[in-house]
Negative regulator of flagellin synthesis (Comamonas avium), 108 residues
Amino acid sequence: MKVGQNTNVEMLAAKLQQNATQQAQQSKSGTASEVVQQTRSNAAGVPVTVSNSARSLDQNAKTSADVDMAKVNAIREAIANGTFKVNASVIADKMLVDTADLLGAARA
Protein backbone atom coordinates (compact mmCIF):
# COMPACT_ATOMS: atom_id res chain seq x y z
CA MET A 1 0.00 0.00 0.00
CA LYS A 2 1.33 3.41 -0.94
CA VAL A 3 1.43 6.28 1.48
CA GLY A 4 -1.51 8.61 0.92
CA GLN A 5 -3.83 5.95 -0.51
CA ASN A 6 -6.75 4.77 1.51
CA THR A 7 -8.63 2.02 -0.25
CA ASN A 8 -11.22 1.87 2.55
CA VAL A 9 -12.23 5.48 1.90
CA GLU A 10 -12.41 4.82 -1.82
CA MET A 11 -14.55 1.72 -1.28
CA LEU A 12 -16.82 3.62 1.11
CA ALA A 13 -17.22 6.47 -1.37
CA ALA A 14 -18.11 4.01 -4.13
CA LYS A 15 -20.66 2.28 -1.87
CA LEU A 16 -22.24 5.61 -0.90
CA GLN A 17 -22.50 6.58 -4.55
CA GLN A 18 -24.13 3.23 -5.37
CA ASN A 19 -26.64 3.66 -2.51
CA ALA A 20 -27.48 7.19 -3.64
CA THR A 21 -28.09 5.93 -7.17
CA GLN A 22 -30.34 3.11 -5.93
CA GLN A 23 -32.34 5.49 -3.73
CA ALA A 24 -32.81 7.88 -6.63
CA GLN A 25 -34.06 5.03 -8.81
CA GLN A 26 -36.42 3.80 -6.09
CA SER A 27 -37.87 7.26 -5.49
CA LYS A 28 -38.66 7.53 -9.21
CA SER A 29 -40.34 4.13 -9.42
CA GLY A 30 -43.37 4.77 -7.22
CA THR A 31 -44.74 1.26 -6.73
CA ALA A 32 -43.53 -1.60 -4.59
CA SER A 33 -43.39 -4.01 -7.50
CA GLU A 34 -41.11 -1.70 -9.47
CA VAL A 35 -38.82 -1.30 -6.46
CA VAL A 36 -38.67 -5.09 -6.11
CA GLN A 37 -37.81 -5.44 -9.79
CA GLN A 38 -35.01 -2.88 -9.47
CA THR A 39 -33.72 -4.56 -6.33
CA ARG A 40 -33.70 -7.90 -8.12
CA SER A 41 -31.65 -6.46 -10.95
CA ASN A 42 -29.23 -4.73 -8.54
CA ALA A 43 -28.73 -7.71 -6.22
CA ALA A 44 -26.05 -9.93 -7.70
CA GLY A 45 -27.20 -13.54 -7.40
CA VAL A 46 -29.61 -12.99 -4.52
CA PRO A 47 -33.06 -14.45 -5.28
CA VAL A 48 -36.02 -12.39 -4.10
CA THR A 49 -39.60 -13.60 -3.91
CA VAL A 50 -42.72 -11.60 -3.23
CA SER A 51 -45.70 -13.29 -1.60
CA ASN A 52 -49.16 -13.23 -3.14
CA SER A 53 -50.39 -11.13 -0.20
CA ALA A 54 -47.76 -8.50 -0.92
CA ARG A 55 -48.73 -8.50 -4.59
CA SER A 56 -52.39 -8.05 -3.72
CA LEU A 57 -51.51 -5.17 -1.40
CA ASP A 58 -49.61 -3.53 -4.24
CA GLN A 59 -52.61 -3.96 -6.56
CA ASN A 60 -54.97 -2.54 -3.92
CA ALA A 61 -52.70 0.45 -3.44
CA LYS A 62 -52.81 1.18 -7.16
CA THR A 63 -56.61 1.05 -7.35
CA SER A 64 -57.69 2.71 -4.10
CA ALA A 65 -57.12 6.23 -2.84
CA ASP A 66 -55.82 6.90 0.66
CA VAL A 67 -58.21 9.81 1.11
CA ASP A 68 -61.87 10.18 0.16
CA MET A 69 -61.58 13.51 -1.64
CA ALA A 70 -65.34 13.85 -2.05
CA LYS A 71 -65.73 13.73 1.73
CA VAL A 72 -62.83 16.15 2.24
CA ASN A 73 -64.34 18.61 -0.22
CA ALA A 74 -67.77 18.32 1.42
CA ILE A 75 -66.26 19.09 4.83
CA ARG A 76 -64.27 22.02 3.40
CA GLU A 77 -67.44 23.42 1.87
CA ALA A 78 -69.38 23.00 5.12
CA ILE A 79 -66.60 24.78 7.05
CA ALA A 80 -66.53 27.59 4.49
CA ASN A 81 -70.34 27.95 4.69
CA GLY A 82 -70.31 27.83 8.48
CA THR A 83 -72.58 24.79 8.51
CA PHE A 84 -70.06 22.24 9.79
CA LYS A 85 -71.11 20.86 13.17
CA VAL A 86 -68.72 19.02 15.47
CA ASN A 87 -70.34 16.15 17.37
CA ALA A 88 -68.17 16.04 20.49
CA SER A 89 -69.94 12.95 21.83
CA VAL A 90 -69.08 10.87 18.76
CA ILE A 91 -65.47 12.08 18.82
CA ALA A 92 -65.13 11.26 22.52
CA ASP A 93 -66.60 7.78 22.01
CA LYS A 94 -64.18 7.03 19.17
CA MET A 95 -61.25 8.31 21.23
CA LEU A 96 -62.22 5.98 24.07
CA VAL A 97 -62.52 3.00 21.72
CA ASP A 98 -59.13 3.79 20.16
CA THR A 99 -57.53 4.15 23.59
CA ALA A 100 -59.02 0.85 24.77
CA ASP A 101 -57.68 -0.85 21.62
CA LEU A 102 -54.26 0.69 22.17
CA LEU A 103 -54.14 -0.39 25.81
CA GLY A 104 -55.37 -3.87 24.92
CA ALA A 105 -52.65 -4.23 22.29
CA ALA A 106 -50.01 -3.03 24.75
CA ARG A 107 -51.03 -5.65 27.32
CA ALA A 108 -51.03 -8.52 24.83
In short: The CA atoms of residues 3 and 85 lie 75 Å apart. The first helix runs from residue 7 to 29. Residues 7-63 form one domain. The chain has two domains: 7-63, 69-107.
